[in-house]
Amino acid sequence: MPSARLAPSPLPSRLLAGALCLLASLLLAMSPGNARADDPQAGDAPANPGPRAQLSGAMHSADIRRAAAMVAAWQYGRVKDHDSLDWTYAPLYLGFLSATELLHEPRYADYVRGVGKHAGWGLGPRVHHADDQAVAQAWLALYARTPDAAMLKPLRERYDAQMREPDDTQRPLWWWCDALFMAPPTWAGLARTTHDTAYLDYMDRQWRITSALLYDPAEHLYSRDASYLHKHERNGSKLFWSRGNGWVMAGLARVLTLMPAGYPQRPRYVQQFREMAARLVQLQGRDGLWRAGLLDEDAYPRPETSGSAFIVYALAWGVRHGVLDDASYRPAIERGWRGLVGEIYADGRLGDIQPIGAAPGDYPPGASYVYGVGAFLLAAGEVDALSKETSR
C-alpha cells in the first residue's frame, strides 16, 4: 500500500515539542495497560534473596550454558503454569526459545508453544498498542519451525486493518522508545514470513516518525518519550534511561536480522545501530553493566540488568553479523557478560532488574522480573554463539 507522507507542521518547533510532550503524558496516563508490577509470576523484589551463585563469567561455552541453565530453570519453575500475553512476557518467550536451542531443553519452547496455542495465537487487547503486539515475535519464531497458517491469522488480520488506517502525524503510533522492541520486529517478521514488503514499509515509516521525535543525534541515545526530551539528571546531563535504550538496541538487532540485505532503508538502521553501540560502550560501568540513568552514573549505585542484558545481546549480535568490529567491541561484551553472571543468585534468581516503570528508579538487589530474564537468555545465546566462532 502507498506510504502516507508526513505533512510539514505549521507549528513552531518549540510549540510542537511542547504539544508532543503533553500528548505523550496523556497517552501514558490514559493507556489501560495490563502490565502489573504486583503480578507474582512476573517478578518480585525480596529483601533477602540469599547468597550469590559461584559461577564463572568467562566467555566459554560450558560456563555460559551453566549460567543460562540456572536462570532458565529458576524462571521456568515460577511461570510454567502461567499464561500471559503481556509485553513483560514477550522477552521471556524469546529467551526461552533461545534457551531451548542453547541448552537442548525442549520444555522451554514447549511452554511457549503451549501459551500460544492456549491463546489461539492471539495478541493483547489494545489493537494498535505495541505492547500488545510484542508476543507475536515468539509466534513468528515458532511458525518458522513448524508452519501453520493458524499461527499467523490473528496477527495478519490485525496488521492488515492497521495499515489501512491513515497516519496521525500529531499522534505518533510508537510514542515511547521501548515500543521499538515491541512492535517493529513483528512487522519485519511478518514481512519476511509472507514475502510482503508492505509490512516492512509500514514499520519503516513508523520507525522514522519515532526516531525523529525521540532520537538525540548528538548523544546517539533515545529519550523514553517526548515528556523526557527536556528532563535532566542531578548532574545536569540529559536523562536517558538505560533500559529504554537497551530495548531499542535489541529491537534494532532483531529488525536487522529479519530485514532483507537489499532493503533500501537498511543502511539507516545499521547506522543508528552503530551510533548507539559506540555511545553505549562509552557509558559502560566499571562492573561491565549499565546504570539506570546513562549519563549520571554516580546517581545510580546499582546496575540495571534488563537494559544491560539487551545491550550485551545486541553488541554480541552486531559482532557476530559483521555490523560491529570484533576488536573494538569484544572487550565490552566480555565485561558485560561477566557482570550479568555476577547478578545470578544461588537459586538461579537474576537480580538488579528494575521493576515496571518509565524512567530510572530505585530497586533492591534481588529485584527480578521476567523481561530481564528473557533479555539475559537472549544474551546468553548470542554470547555463546560468538564464543564458538572465536574458538574455531
Q: How would you concisely characterize the structure shown here?
A:
With about 400 residues, the chain is mainly alpha-helical. The protein is built from 14 helices and four strands.
| Major beta-sheet overview | 2 strands, antiparallel
Q: Assembly state here? A: single chain
Q: What's the Cα radius of gyration?
A: 20 Å
CATH topology: Glycosyltransferase
Task: Describe, in plain words, how this protein is organized in 3D.
With 392 residues, the protein is mainly α. The chain has a single domain, classed as Glycosyltransferase. The protein is 54% helix and 2% strand. It is built from 14 helices and four strands. The strands form two sheets. A two-stranded antiparallel ribbon has the order 1-4. A hairpin with a 4-residue loop joins strand 2 and strand 3. Helix 12 packs antiparallel against helix 13. This is Glycoside hydrolase family 88 protein. Keywords: Hydrolase, Signal.
Would you spell out the secondary-structure blueprint of this structure?
Elements: H1 13-30, E1 43-44, H2 61-79, H3 90-103, H4 106-118, H5 136-145, H6 149-163, H7 179-182, H8 184-194, H9 197-214, E2 215-216, E3 221-222, H10 242-258, H11 266-282, H12 305-320, H13 326-341, E4 368-369, H14 370-391
Antiparallel strand pairs: 1-4, 2-3
Helix pairs in contact: 2-3, 2-14, 3-4, 3-5, 3-14, 5-6, 5-8, 8-9, 8-10, 10-11, 10-12, 12-13, 12-14
Keywords: Hydrolase, Signal
InterPro entries: 6-hairpin_glycosidase_sf, 6hp_glycosidase-like_sf, Glyco_hydro_88, PolySaccharide_Degr_Enz
GO molecular function, one term: hydrolase activity
